[in-house]
Automatic annotation (TrEMBL):
Organism encoding this protein: Pseudoalteromonas neustonica
Residue ranges, annotated region (Disordered): 293-336
InterPro entries documented for this protein: Beta-barrel_TonB, Beta-barrel_TonB_sf, Plug_dom, Plug_dom_sf, TonB_rcpt_bac
Identification of the protein by name: TonB-dependent receptor
Pfam hit, one: TonB_dep_Rec_b-barrel
Lineage, uppermost ranks: Bacteria, Pseudomonadati, Pseudomonadota, Gammaproteobacteria, Alteromonadales
């Protein structure tokens, strides 16, 4: 089944073509062209026919088959998809699987106008549409929902090999037949249907991966040269009784490294990054405190203080209003990584046509991926203020970001051994039945599952004393100067040796879906068909808990009576694994060692430090305690467990029209989709007993076991839609669309964790007096974010190689996010108790987003072509940080009170970028095909922490890519490809732009390969 077959019309011609299906060699080539067009229409609800091609190949019987390949063919397909669509859609299709012009699905999607990616490990992962975050989009594989291991609804596209995907599309407007869930748009992927493919094909490709930055790394997890091998087979078999069977099979093995060098500051979790007071007149706290200590603590008074945003009732302003501050974290550090990325993927399909009116498709996608990193960190603890030094020498920018720091503090040689395993399984069965000449029925069942688990060793050795050091911010990262301290001497880190073994973020996400659709063809001059259907699905998300909430931890500190610290460090010491560490983003040496007179000391100056083998270190500490070196187990019955079940039923009805009006041909559709969702969320809490005292008062006595608790919620939404295309002339189209969209809350935020607040001091005599409130997290009754969406576009198609498209769009969001107090019912001792709880909710606050989008594609006769896509958007939606932003609470009567007056400006929509640009310059002449690609994305807000309440900004970046190929003969092609060609780093700011939080330097990734097809 194609991606959106519900969009297409099963015509009599299509039925006849099935009947005439034959597998003789010449017929295969003829039908290849026909089925390519049919498959394109089925894939994108666009009725997209393959564009007339230009190069002529003569067959033995004199028939001329026209064919265009490479970059030009891909762009022609993009133009055809857009032109014939009834919705606003952009896509990529390939004549053969393996021909999508990108190294990953993420990179391929980035080439589509308005799409941009979030980069991790140097490659594209999550995709945003029109500058709106991944949580506002939906992803479908072969027309079905896809799962993920992140706890949200975005999809990590690096999980899927581009070589085994035949078509991708982004629907920017929607119609009633599409699965609900994307305010920004819907990303659709399609694998091959073997009978529709219409030809036998055996393909293979071998690529070697070389990363220049990896050549400087002594990688214990991976060799310098990586490997990526792909094989696929497609064939069809016709039987004498007119039945036909098609099979396709694809497999890929990837084994590469992903070099990454990092500068890091403490993350904005709320317990490690602070706005410390920078007031010379205040000697009780901050950087000018009178005694050495953490800058967020008071000399006399509270700890974890810092800048206080709570409203002072006497002034109506923040308690610390007007006081200067500077951002400082628990540490600033450098991280060197040894990396490995292994992925095995299998995509397969069987298509069976027992008759001209019945089409049965069975498909499967399997992907197993394991990422591993050996991390070596040098940490400078940073919260401590040295009296008379830190405050007077501190230099900051206007955002409170520190540019120069001096003081005495501990230094650590730390390390982590990290691995993440993620397994994806997707299966689907589709049956298409032409019941009568006018009635088509379609049945589909599907299953999607993702499992993820992370294992991590975290080690630490620190200095006994507090050496003096300072640092200055360079162009990209800080540079440290240390006095009388050699970071390369491992004997300097013998204090407080500790290891932690964590098993965490173990998640299972499943979606089971089934749907029945019909399309009835009409004979009218206006309405061509009516479509309708019903779909039901059940999503389950489980995150297993442990002694650390979302995981379990085993911790050991060194028992020096058994093993001296220096013995552990020396026996596990390794040479620093990388030369030229962070050289592309540093202004010379990142570490400078000087003596007390300021003279340079060679040892300890440079870009390296003392490191050790992480597993050796951890095993030694476990052995010194007589403990086992083993990762702890997780458990389902745990207070940290999240277990969410989301059941959805949706029905739709849609009319398609195609007619002439005022001398112009118009086409499109209108309809409505109704969606009903019920959420059930399970959690665990300690048991308790309500005890009646001698005086008649009540006391809550906690038990030692756990009990299961349950919460829930639901909603019903009506989603109308209307799409219009006006064929103004042979080469000009006018397009418009209106639809109401919805984006569901992330499954991880639908958990249900609750504990009671009690008041036993007032001698309560009733449950209503004993229980005064509830603490907890997760809101299973969180409502979806709704929006009305309007699109209008002008499109000019001068020829099959050219397009000029200009569109405007407007989205009115009907919802925001706010902390609000609501009432929940609890059963205690057989009685119902109604208690208030403050939680995150979706409000009815409205906000707007305006945008423009343009695409330009042109090819000259010389073989040079260009493709440009640009999206601009602006919005007034505001997203406040939960610690240092303005926060409010709404009580049970609906009264809203401001709790804090923040010091950071609100962010916008998560993932929102004002500017997104994709451009391509290609040259194709004869058998040589090459392209240069440039992609730009302006800064955007990427929420931090699992409940997405902290502000984190990813800075603007432009990335270059290149590819070239040469067709040796009709069977063999050689390829060269590169991403991040000029080694653009990724830079992030915490809480506010200007407060540098992290810089990731990846270096370029180079691939060279040879492919064959028969």
């Amino acid at each position: 089944m194609s991606l959106n077959k519900e969009h297409t019309k099963i015509t009599e011609l299509h039925i006849q073509e099935r009947t005439r299906f034959a597998l003789r060699p010449v017929a295969k080539l003829v039908k290849a062209t026909m089925f390519a067009g049919v498959a394109g229409s089925l894939a994108f609800s666009a009725h997209a026919q393959e564009a007339p091609a230009q190069n002529v190949a003569a067959e033995d019987d004199g028939i001329e088959i026209i064919s265009v390949t490479g970059s030009r063919r891909t762009i022609q397909n993009q133009i055809a998809i857009k032109r014939e669509a009834t919705t606003v859609v952009d896509g990529l299709s390939a004549d053969d699987i393996g021909d999508l012009p990108a190294l990953s699905i993420g990179e391929a999607l980035e080439s589509i106008t308005g799409a941009a990616s979030h980069r991790e490990n140097g490659g594209a992962t999550e995709i945003t549409i029109r500058g709106l975050g991944p949580f506002l989009s939906a992803t479908h594989i072969n027309g079905r929902e896809a799962t993920n291991g992140s706890g949200d609804r975005s999809v990590n596209f690096s999980q899927f090999p581009s070589e085994l995907v035949k078509k991708i599309a982004i629907y920017k407007t929607q119609d009633a037949s599409m699965i609900e869930g994307g305010v920004a748009g819907v990303i659709a992927l399609e694998t091959v249907q073997p009978l529709d493919f219409g030809k036998q094909r055996i393909q293979g490709e071998v690529k070697v991966n070389y990363n220049p930055d990896e050549s400087n790394v002594d990688n214990s997890l991976q060799s310098d040269v990586g490997f990526r091998g792909t094989f696929s087979y497609v064939d069809q078999f016709e039987f004498d009784n007119g039945q036909a069977v098609g099979v396709s099979f694809g497999v890929q093995r990837q084994d590469i490294s992903q070099p990454e060098a990092e500068y890091r500051s403490s993350s904005p979790t709320g317990s490690s990054l602070w706005a410390c007071l920078n007031d010379p007149s205040n000697t009780n706290e901050g950087f000018y405190r009178s005694s050495a200590g953490d800058c967020e603590d008071q000399v006399s008074g509270s700890s974890n203080q810092g800048y206080q945003t709570a409203i002072d009732p006497d002034t109506g302003k923040a308690e610390s209003d007007g006081t200067p501050y500077a951002w400082t974290g628990s540490s600033r550090s450098f991280r060197q990584n040894e990396t490995s990325d292994e992925r095995d993927a299998i995509f397969m399909a069987v298509q069976y046509q027992p008759s001209a009116v019945l089409d049965i498709n069975l498909d499967a996608q399997i992907s197993d991926r394991t990422q591993a990193e050996a991390r070596h960190d040098l940490l400078f603890l940073q919260k401590r203020a040295t009296p008379g030094i830190t405050g007077p020498s501190l230099v900051t920018n206007q955002a409170g970001g520190i540019l120069h720091w001096e003081g005495e503090e501990r230094i650590e040689s730390a390390g982590e051994q990290f691995s993440r395993e993620e397994n994806y399984r997707g299966y689907g069965l589709n049956v298409d039945y032409q019941a009568t000449d006018n009635l088509n029925l379609n049945f589909d069942v599907s299953y999607s599952q993702t499992k993820r688990e992370e294992l991590q060793i975290s080690n630490r050795g620190r200095t006994v004393d507090r050496p003096f050091f300072s640092w200055d911010m360079g162009e990209h990262i800080p540079h440290f100067t240390l006095t009388d301290f050699d970071v390369t001497d491992i004997s300097n880190y013998t204090d407080s040796l500790r290891t932690r073994l964590d098993r965490e973020n173990a998640r299972e996400n499943e979606v089971i879906g089934a749907r029945v659709d019909f399309e009835y063809t009409l004979g009218g001059d206006v309405f061509t068909s009516i479509q309708g259907g019903v779909r039901t699905s059940e999503l389950t998300f489980v995150q297993y808990g442990g002694n650390q909430g979302n995981g379990s931890r085993t911790e050991y500190t060194l028992d020096e009576s058994v093993t001296p610290a220096l013995d552990v460090l020396q026996s596990c010491q390794i040479d620093f694994p990388e030369s030229g560490f962070l050289s592309s983003v540093s202004d010379g040496d990142i570490l400078t060692h000087v003596d007390s007179d300021g003279n340079l000391v060679a040892s300890g100056t440079g870009s390296s430090w003392a490191t050790y083998d992480n597993e050796c270190f951890s095993q030694a500490l476990a052995a010194s305690n007589g403990g086992a070196f083993a990762y702890p187990e997780l458990e389902y019955e745990n207070a940290g467990t999240i277990d969410v079940t989301e059941k959805t039923t949706s029905v739709y009805l849609m009319a398609n029209y195609d007619t002439e009006m005022f001398g112009k041909y118009i086409r499109g559709n209108f309809g409505v989709r109704v969606v009903d969702t019920d959420v059930t969320s399970l959690g665990f809490r300690n048991t308790f007993e309500v005890v009646t005292n001698d005086d008649g008062s009540l006391t809550l006595v906690p038990g030692e076991s756990l009990e299961q608790i349950e919460g829930g919620g639901g909603y019903t939404e009506v989603l109308p839609s209307f799409n219009l295309v006006v064929d103004y002339s042979e080469d000009i189209l006018l397009r418009g669309g209106i639809y109401r969209g919805m984006s569901r809350p992330d499954p991880a935020n639908l958990g249900y964790s609750r504990t009671f607040q009690t008041d036993e001091e007032s001698a309560p005599t009733s449950l209503g007096d004993l229980f005064v409130g509830v603490n907890g997290s997760g809101n299973p009754n969180t409502q979806p974010l709704m929006s009305w969406n309007y699109d209008a576009a002008f499109e000019w198609y001068p020829n099959e190689d050219a397009i000029f498209a200009f569109g405007v769009y407007y989205k009115q969001f009907q919802g925001g996010f706010q902390q609000q107090t609501v009432l929940e019912d609890f059963i205690v001792g057989g009685q119902t108790v109604t208690l208030p709880i403050t939680n995150s909710v979706t409000t009815d606050e409205e906000s707007d987003l305006f945008g423009i989008e343009t695409s330009i594609t042109y090819r000259w006769d010389s073989g040079i072509g260009i493709k440009l896509g640009y999206n601009y958007a602006d919005t007034d939606m505001e997203y406040e940080d939960s610690l240092y932003g303005d926060t409010y609470v709404t009580d049970l009567d609906g009264n809203t009170t401001q709790l804090t007056a923040g010091i950071v400006s609100p962010a916008s929509v998560p993932g929102f970028s004002k500017h997104v640009l994709s451009s391509q310059l290609y040259y194709q002449i004869g058998d040589f095909d090459t392209a240069i690609i440039y992609k730009y994305r302006s800064e955007y807000f990427q929420p931090y922490t699992s409940n997405s309440t902290r502000l984190r900004y990813v800075d603007a970046v432009g990335v270059w890519e290149a590819r070239a190929s040469y067709k040796v003969n009709e069977h063999v092609r050689v390829k060269l490809e590169a991403i991040n060609l000029f080694s653009q780093p990724k830079s992030q700011d915490y809480f506010t732009e200007g407060n540098l939080g992290e810089v990731n330097d990846y270096g370029p990734r180079l691939f060279a390969g040879v492919s064959f097809k028969f």
